[in-house]
Target: Multiple sugar transport system ATP-binding protein
Amino acid sequence: MRMNAVEALGTERCGVPGVDNLDLPDCTCVPRHKPGGRSVGELHMSTVTLESVSKVYPGGRRAVADLSLTIADGEFFVLLGPSGCGKSTTLRMVAGLEDITSGGLWLDDRPANGLTPRERNVAMVFQNGARYPHRTVCGGGGVPRETARTGSAEAGREPAVLLMDEPPSGLDAAPRTVPRAEIGGRVRGAGVTTLYVTHDHVEALALADRIAVLRDGFLEDVGTPTQIYESPATAFVAAFLGAPRINLLSAVPEAVPGEGVVLDLGTQRLTVPWADPRAEHLAGRHGEPVILGLRPDALRPTGDPHLGPVLSGHIRTLEFHGHEWLAHVDADVTVVDADAVGRRSRPARAVAPQPVVPQPGGVAGRALSMLLGGAARREPAEPSAHLGGHRPELLARLDSRVGFGPGMLVHLAVDLDRMPIFGGDGRRVDPVRR
Ligand SMILES: Nc1ncnc2c1ncn2[C@@H]1O[C@H](COP(=O)(O)OP(=O)(O)OP(=O)(O)O)[C@@H](O)[C@H]1O
Model:
């Protein structure tokens, strides 16, 4: 029989109405204390503000770098990113379980750097200790059992802030959807300010009011799920969110009077007309490589390759997805690996020199070498479940009712309005609106 792990561990309920009854496997709740936030009816709500917060662990590992965030009253805020990007460290600094190396933390406008965990009026539900063998279940990374108990003895009922560190991570894909829906519904129903950590982009998009994406301890992007999915600030964020993965294509802009900015992808071209506000930003990058972001659903088969922006290619393989095909199209484009682009160095860590990437031929190939040249001297990319490595084909979604087949020539109309463009540093060429 599955027990509520909070009960199984004999530790505290987190105090958020409804959330206490969630069946969260291998999780526990830790300290909370006197209500410090504002009262809204029965509930104490609070804001959380981090200003230029950094964390360097003993030994020099910088886990969080210059992080500034404001989480509003009652907001369901998700910290998202790959393993090791600093999500848990951020959560634990808010809980008071890790010291802040530099920067400021405010809880409901109260300076909180110096507060003990028990003085913060937060509740924390954290992940399965088994995922991190160096942590104990009770401590979840070093929380003394006494702390949890002392906190519980003095706690009021509702906490001001709920901190959740991948609570459903002990579940496999199928049953996981149940607690996700439950968590979303109950926590939202309670209206408590929530900071929720996950590496799962689907979970983040489904649950969050807003999402902050972290990478190597740095903030890459912050916004609503729609904002960061449709208009990501960096190529890394574009690639981290969404499945099937976004196409990130190397191109070189060339300003052409009277026409627009022609994006040279090698053997194919797309034109951004002068009326498009991005054209002037691209014109300033004439001859410098940029990265085009095209989600598979921003490409639609068309019968006329001369009408509007189109990329053409031969279908290499087709994956049947029921309502659609996922087509791998050999379009003679150069795909950029987002993991290798825009990675900021981590001064706290020694970085061994890496060999320079050999230069492939062709315009797009040279562009790729320029894009990767800087990154190649930095630390090697960590593996990511979502980026899928460096693959040459274009991915497109095709209607499964149409008789497509391998080897067939397909023309794909490009929705330019859904094509974010990034510079060689992985950041957007045009201002990101939030
Ligand atoms: N106590 C510690 N001492 C030294 N380094 C640490 C400590 N805890 C975490 N780190 C390092 O800090 C970085 C950030 O770790 P953190 O656990 O915050 O990342 P995360 O994004 O939560 O990862 P995950 O999703 O795997 O839990 C990692 O490189 C990690 O190895």
